[in-house]
Design goal:
The chain is an alpha+beta fold. It contains nine helices and eleven strands. The strands form four sheets. A five-stranded antiparallel sheet has the order 1-2-3-5-4. It has a two-stranded antiparallel ribbon with strand order 6-9. A two-stranded antiparallel ribbon has the order 7-8. α3 (about 115-135) runs antiparallel to α5 (about 205-220) and α5 packs antiparallel against α7 (about 250-260). The longest helix has 20 residues, at about 45-60. The radius of gyration is 19 Å and the shape is globular. Keywords: ATP-binding, Kinase, Nucleotide-binding, Serine/threonine-protein kinase, Transferase. This is Kinase.
Length: about 280
């Protein structure tokens, strides 16, 4: 990445602050993720090293991706010629700037969405997710705060810090490494929450898709009446979150299919794009 200017704080990502930046040569606006570089060997420094390693893994994933519904990686740098001396202590990752903010922010500002908008947005998310799954990549953290919306209504999947590359086991099944608690509890699939021995697959993202639909329809995350430990117990018990009572039969069917406790019964992203709930938006 070449020379750039640092602008205002526009959000907080999984690793720390996100600033608006501008390329000093092209004028391209960018979202800039910053992680402070480690300077010692304290426990906090070890955590920082771990965060930088995770951010570099995210970069390695993003570098391979080119899709309209996935935020575009632009570069990385350890310096900023037009920034303050304190900014020299940060590792910077440059991403496509999506000015509308996240779905979570829109829900906070405007309240719950009507079904036509939910169908529109979830169809775009599924298109991006199908692209990822076709390439053996699990996102592992689909939720409203990680889906960005452009001024033109185009949505983009972001924040790949928890993503995993799936591998084929001896039976030919494509699975990810052993589950970890990276990701967000309220959107987490039962097989991930239970920390089952072995591995899980792309169907964990499909559960999160159902949770994202609930988030958009209600304006709050699933299990909103519970704290994280209570939600973890409910999810691990293979309970489903409560559905709104005023939604269409197609929406209910979509939620029942995506939130099936048995991952083998959940449709793929490609199959869900043909579901009446999403296909009605095209």
């Amino acid at each position: 990445m070449g020379d750039w200017f640092k602008g205002e704080l526009i959000g907080t990502g999984s690793f720390g602050p996100v600033y608006l930046g501008i390329d000093a040569n092209t004028g391209t606006l960018m979202a800039v993720k910053q992680v402070e570089l480690p300077t010692g060997s304290t426990s906090n420094e070890e955590r920082t090293k771990s965060m930088i390693s995770a951010l570099e893994r995210e970069v390695e994933v993003l570098k391979t991706l080119q899709h309209v519904n996935i935020v575009q990686y632009l570069g990385k740098a350890f310096a900023c010629l037009h920034c303050s001396a304190s900014d020299e202590k940060f590792f910077n990752v440059f991403l496509e700037y999506v000015p509308g903010g996240s779905i979570a922010k829109l829900l906070h500002n405007y309240g719950a969405f009507e079904e036509p908008l939910v169908r529109n947005f979830i169809g775009q998310v599924l298109t991006g997710l199908d692209y990822l799954h076709e390439r053996g990549i699990l996102h592992c953290n689909i939720r409203g705060s990680n889906i960005l919306v452009g001024n033109d209504g185009v949505v983009k999947i972001s924040d790949f810090y928890a993503s995993k590359q799936v591998k084929e086991n001896n039976g030919g099944e494509r699975t990810a490494p052993r589950p970890s608690f990276q990701g967000s509890v309220f959107w987490m699939a039962p097989e991930v929450a239970m920390q089952k021995a072995g591995a899980y697959n792309c169907k964990a993202d499909i559960w999160s898709i159902g949770c994202l639909v609930l988030e958009m329809l209600t304006g709050q995350h699933p299990w909103a009446e519970l704290d994280q430990m209570q939600a973890m117990w409910k999810i691990g018990s293979k309970d489903k979150p409560t559905f709104p009572t005023d939604i269409s039969t197609n929406a209910v069917d979509f939620l029942n299919k995506t939130l099936d406790p048995d991952p083998d019964n959940r449709p793929s992203a490609k199959e869900l794009l043909q579901h009446p709930f999403t296909s009605a938006s095209r």
